Amino acid sequence: MLFFTQCFGAVLDLIHLRFQHYKAKRVFSAAGQLVCVVNPTHSLKYAPTRCAAAQSSAEQGILPPCHHHEAVHDPQLVPCTCPLFSCPWEGHLEVVVSHLRQTHRINILQGAEIVFLATDMHLPAPTDWIIMHSCLGHQFLLVLRKQEKYEGHPQFFATMMLIGTPTQADNFTYRLELNRNQRRLKWEATPRSVLECVDSVISDGDCLVLNTSLAQLFSDNGSLAIGIAITTSKVHNAEAEM
Amino acid sequence: MLFFTQCFGAVLDLIHLRFQHYKAKRVFSAAGQLVCVVNPTHSLKYAPTRCAAAQSSAEQGILPPCHHHEAVHDPQLVPCTCPLFSCPWEGHLEVVVSHLRQTHRINILQGAEIVFLATDMHLPAPTDWIIMHSCLGHQFLLVLRKQEKYEGHPQFFATMMLIGTPTQADNFTYRLELNRNQRRLKWEATPRSVLECVDSVISDGDCLVLNTSLAQLFSDNGSLAIGIAITTSKVHNAEAEM
Lengths: 242, 242
Hints:
The structure is a homodimer.
Chain A: H1 2-19, E1 26-30, E2 33-38, E3 41-42, H2 48-57, E4 77-79, E5 90-92, H3 96-102, E6 108-110, E7 113-118, E8 127-135, E9 138-150, E10 153-162, H4 166-169, E11 172-180, E12 183-189, E13 192-193, H5 198-204, E14 208-211, H6 212-218, E15 219-220, E16 223-232, H7 235-241
Parallel strand pairs in A: 2-7, 6-8, 10-13
Antiparallel strand pairs in A: 1-2, 3-8, 4-5, 7-16, 8-9, 9-10, 10-14, 11-12, 11-16, 15-16
């Protein structure tokens, strides 16, 4: 097991050496796994009030009118789910992906297992690293956020959200895995829906949480590699059998 | 996978119902796994200065004279490694286990895989939960500590240490696993030697770290179940083959 840890580390070393001078987002394949280099975006503004309102009606698959957008007259319309920007866009759930790609230039990756390589981990909080992941017929949003919950003590929070309804999200399990320096940390959970809010997931701490010291142990030259895998939940099949 | 998560949760529910009114440490077997109920001990005093001195010479397998103990004239003598008490005992590494059992009444469990069930997680920091684990011909010390690194924000730190030298510790890998509410968190690392210091491992954050919110998600009625497994590291065999 530790042998694979070292191999994985060596591959990442090579990847990092090759790409550390690139600033653009780049996607390539290494050792059969799709690796995506994700550059940080400094978050200028958070809008927690948007989320508080959203939370209550997320189960119905709609978002209510909110403070940061014009009133949503059509209940099928969804405000922009990208947590980076206070974006005035709103639209149907089906076109959220194309909006995130086109307006916010968020990359989308295909494949059951990918590696998310977040660069420049040393940048001050608040900072986000975001990518979309297309898998099992759905699109997911991976958010890594550096944030100071306690002043002067930044932490890293990573979560995965389905670009779909909470009911659809319940059908999946996502896994985030860090693997370096003979240490391995794995987080597995059901993704949340983007109709819920990434801010509230992070403030609840219901995600992979890393202290700065752990983040440094898992980082290589300021870059953090997170292995991502998405599977279909077995729980529904198992319940059906009972 | 989530099916097993739920089964595991159901087993723990039964365990908890059966044992929540017991206050003594109890060991029993459930679903083929040895489960040990570990009660907390409030830590009255930490002695970080002991550790700072110990750290530098831990590689040589000895501990230097230190502030909290009489000077160690025999370099083979080891001060009490139990992190709970500032204990004046010192002795050879071979008799540390019997000292911990007899003087500090720390339980010892046999078996490759055990479940550590820490009770009363709500108690204020600093609090420790400690057990010894006998496995693969060696004894390990599992320490779960609730501590406030940032005032008013207690965190939980869990680590495993070999009652042996750092060179011996390099031969093993330990895994700590939390599994509840459709979430799973796994930490894998090489154990540290008790000749190094649990305080420094925790202050470095080189262990499983849980915020209060995550600890609550994984707890059941105030008890946290941690699955523990120890294996022999494959890295040495792999290196020998090269």
